[in-house]
Design a protein that fits this description.
Elements (H helix, E strand, L loop, with lengths): L1 H7 L5 H4 L48 E6 L6 H17 L3 E6 L8 H6 L6 E5 L3 H6 L7 H5 L9 H4 L3 E2 L2 E2 L2 E7 L1 E5 H6 L11 H11 L16 H13 L5 E4 L2 E4 L4 H16 L11 H9 L5 E4 L1 H10 L8 E4 L11 E11 L5 H11 L6 H16 L17 H10 L10 H6 L1 E4 L5 H17 L5 H15 L8
Parallel strand pairs: 1-2, 12-13
Antiparallel strand pairs: 3-12, 4-5, 6-12, 7-10, 7-11, 8-9
Helix pairs in contact: 10-11, 10-18, 12-13, 18-19
Length: 488
């Protein structure tokens, strides 16, 4: 879900974790993407003062003055700021012709239009998987297909993630990281109740039985903690909609139609109600936001939580003091045996401002990809693992990296992981069953907010009619959001 990606998923990207590494040995071909050609006049959109190229400089972008305004971490993200500052120093050592301006504006769907209209948007900025169609339709992202095609590592990027920002065969963004929503299980709570851990190829019935068996309301322990507050409540529930075979919307000839009030939607909502009213398995105070649910897990107050696995495991091991053998990442359960283990697929992307000059766009691309696939990045991850070890903490990889699992680079990373006993190991069965389904491309947050109200009503009022609830919600989303979408 994009709401959490911007704050928490930044930790998932290996490239971001590796940003403290050196990048000086990038192959020269990596830095020759795109045409860089002739338009170096200042546009003023980045606070730059790019001059017209001098004689003999027209074909060499490194000899022309370029200013780029970069996406920069928030003030309270001190570690990330230190890493970004290090990257800036290394980048400018290689490209002394580039002036870098820091901008800690964080993408907001309510602000991006104003930023573009006032020419105040950074040269590149972070956004989410849900935003591709929205930004492309409004012309707020640059077509970087030429730069992409000239990049030597394009074939080693994770295609599942990258494809979210390829629209009509054109590339509009670069993946930073991604996630497929999973269920993380506290095995110790299961053991304490004498409940066997389910098979990885599990079902809703298995989830129900575990949740009901572990729940101990008198002790304040829930079997499962579905999110019930904020847009995250709708996001959590959508996994079950997908598993039941449903969809959020259809898009035919530019007409977006809400379809989540389907038989699959009813089935998914009825399952939520079973967990609440029949099993009594969710927290008594069920109005949990993302942080509340993750905190409940790390404190040992719930047996299961639904989220990106990295964030939950990181908190449980390094903040909650839990043991790796007691924290198990599962795929989402299938509705029935043999069904799909769908989890919502989301992630973070960096996109380039279409108002920037060609030189600014090319340097932004080079900056974004500067630490991807480097040997120094491998050294940095090993240094980070050792630093975690010295602190008595664990290094938790993200299950879904920016690079392809079958790339040469992935093999090098695995070799490093295998050397250390403080690197969390995911069960291989997870990856054979994990299956991501992309979030809706239109009105996603409006849909999530509406469904959050439905989830809250379902948890607070016994005996509600799921079909009626969903029909009302679908009508509201259709009339207030989807009908206002202009066909392409």
């Amino acid at each position: 879900m994009r709401k959490f990606s911007a704050v928490l998923m930044c930790l998932m990207l290996l490239g971001s974790l590796l940003a403290a590494c050196g990048g000086g040995n990038n192959k020269e071909a990596q830095n020759n993407g795109g045409n860089g050609g002739g338009n170096a006049a200042a546009t003023g959109n980045n606070g730059g003062g790019n001059a017209e190229p001098a004689a003999g400089e027209a074909d060499d972008i490194t000899q022309r003055k370029v200013t780029i305004k970069i996406h920069y971490p928030l003030p309270d993200e001190t570690t990330l700021r230190q890493q970004e500052d290090d990257k800036i120093a290394r980048f400018q050592a290689k490209y002394p012709n580039v002036t870098i301006v820091k901008d800690d504006w964080q993408y907001s769907v309510n602000e991006i239009g104003v930023k573009m209209a006032s020419n105040e948007a950074p040269t590149f900025y972070n956004t989410w998987a849900t935003e591709a169609q929205f930004l492309v339709e409004r012309g707020w992202v640059a077509d970087i297909t030429e730069l992409w095609n000239n990049w030597e590592y394009k074939d080693e990027i994770n295609p599942v993630l990258q494809n979210q920002f390829i629209v009509d065969g054109k590339v509009y963004g670069i993946t930073q990281n991604g996630y497929v929503t999973s269920t993380v299980v506290n095995k110790k709570l299961l053991d304490d109740k004498g409940i066997a851990a389910p098979a990885f190829d599990w079902t809703w019935d298995d989830m129900y039985n575990v949740a009901k068996g572990v729940a101990d309301p008198k002790k304040g322990i829930s079997g499962i903690a579905p999110m019930g507050k904020g847009n995250e409540a709708g996001w959590n529930w959508t996994n079950f909609l997908f598993e039941a075979g449903g969809d959020i919307e259809t898009n035919e000839n530019g007409k977006v139609t809400a379809v989540f009030n389907s038989e699959a939607g009813v089935k998914a909502l009825d399952f939520y109600k079973k967990l609440r009213w029949e099993a009594n398995a969710i927290p008594q105070d069920w109005a949990l936001g993302w942080g509340d649910a993750v905190s409940s897990f790390q404190q040992g107050r719930t047996a299961m939580v639904i989220a990106g696995a990295f964030d939950v495991i990181q908190a449980a091991l390094n903040e909650g003091g839990m043991k790796p053998e007691d924290v198990i990442a599962y795929p989402m359960p299938a509705a029935e045996k043999g069904g799909k283990h769908y989890g919502v697929l989301g992630g973070n992307y960096l996109v380039i401002n279409p108002n920037a000059t060609k030189d600014e766009q090319e340097m932004a691309f080079r900056y974004i990809t500067f630490d991807y696939f480097t040997d120094d990045a491998l050294k940095s991850v090993e240094d980070t693992i050792n630093a975690r070890k010295a602190e008595g903490k664990y290094y938790v990889p993200t299950p879904l990296e920016y690079f392809s699992d079958d790339s040469e680079y992935a093999g090098k990373v695995k070799t490093i992981y295998d050397k250390y006993d403080n690197v969390y190991k995911y069960d291989p069965q997870l990856f054979s069953l994990l299956e991501g389904k992309p979030e809706a491309q239109f009105g996603t947050q409006d849909y999530y907010a509406t469904m959050s109200n439905v989830v809250q009503e379902s948890f607070s009022k016994k005996g509600t009619d799921s079909k009626k609830q969903l029909d009302v919600a679908a009508k509201y989303v259709q009339e207030n959001f989807f009908d206002k979408i202009q066909p392409q």
